[in-house]
Design goal:
Chain B: Pfam families: Response_reg. The structure holds 2 protein chains of 2 kinds. Chain A is α+β, with helices and mostly antiparallel strands. In chain A, strand 6 and strand 7 form a beta hairpin. By secondary structure, chain B is of the alpha/beta class. Chain B contains 5 helices and 7 strands; from the N terminus they run E-H-E-H-E-H-E-H-E-H-E-E. In chain B, the strands form 2 sheets. Chain B has a 5-stranded parallel β-sheet with strand order 2-1-3-4-5, with helices on both faces. In chain B, helix 2 packs parallel to helix 3. The chains are: A alpha+beta, B alpha/beta. Chains A and B meet through helix 1, helix 2 and helix 3 of A and helix 1 of B.
């Protein structure tokens, strides 16, 4: 099993690509600083040739806007928690799947786990890479955690 | 002409529905492979299935295998639309009988181009 980690530039680039493909109409993802407090988070794990976890953390407003864009909802339409969980889960699925493709394989991608607040991480997960961005003026954080190894 | 969109994410089904509806397709949707098989068993005859790989109950790869076991469904075009981008996975899906493979994230143009390549769309409308 490899304990390598993707580079910050790679993770930033693929996160921006996901945003540009599905969410870029409203506003591009910009560099940011700091992370959201509360809000929504989602995680997806990769097991096999490389083992790790990719997480996405969003404020309530960003999570709602992501949902509205992905579901093609009107601006005044309110997304249900179920819809937000679905959209945020798909977001981490796309980022996680692309992180998986950067790492040694073959590996398997889990189904996403979504939480209000911060999703739990295994005790041996070490944050290897953290992209801090901003969308709609609010923080967005994408992190890659490696299992069972000290991050490089 | 129908497109059957198979993805466990309602958000992703919505994105794909908007793309193919704009091209003139009627759509049906399923949240996993078994639900999609139920649609086919129920008499739906889509021109194309757009198929995610990682789904609960039945994944997209198994769905492709099941469809290809049935001669009466041989005319259905199968296109994977997934984050699975390892070369080995792509080869497996194509060997199992998928015609095309699109990696998420994608643009609407990428889907349109693939449908044109497959002969299902011509000049922006179903062929």
């Amino acid at each position: 099993m490899s304990t390598a980690a993707p580079t910050l530039d790679d993770v930033r680039s693929l996160t921006e690509e996901v945003w540009a493909s599905f969410l870029g109409e409203a506003e591009p993802l910009l560099p940011g600083a700091g992370g959201p407090t509360g809000g929504w988070s989602a995680a997806i794990t990769v097991t096999g040739g490389w083992e790790g976890m990719v997480t996405v953390e969003l404020t309530d407003r960003v999570a709602a806007a992501v949902t509205q864009q992905m579901l093609g909802m009107a601006e005044d339409e309110v997304a249900s928690d179920e819809d937000v969980a679905d959209a945020v889960g798909e977001l981490v699925n796309m980022v996680g799947g692309n992180v998986k493709s950067l790492m040694p394989g073959p590996s398997t991608l889990s189904l996403p786990v979504v939480a209000v607040g911060r999703v739990a991480r295994p005790s041996d997960a070490v944050e290897a890479c953290r992209v801090e961005a901003s969308w709609l003026g609010e923080p967005v954080v994408v992190s890659v955690h490696v299992f069972g190894a000290a991050a490089a | 002409m129908h497109a059957l969109i198979i993805d466990d994410s309602r958000a992703m089904r919505s994105i794909l529905r908007r793309i193919v509806t704009e091209l003139g397709f009627e759509t049906a949707e399923a949240g996993h492979g078994q639900e999609a098989l139920d649609h086919l068993e129920g008499g739906l005859t889509p021109a194309i299935c757009l198929i995610d790989w990682n789904m609960p109950v039945m994944d997209g790869y198994t769905f492709v295998q099941k469809v290809r076991e049935r001669p009466e469904w041989r005319d259905i075009t199968l296109m994977m639309v997934t984050t699975e981008s390892e070369h080995g996975q792509i080869v497996r899906a194509l060997a199992a009988g998928a015609h095309e493979y699109v990696i998420k994230p994608f643009t609407p143009d990428a889907i349109t181009d693939k449908l044109e390549m497959l002969g299902l769309v011509r000049n922006g409308v179903p062929a």
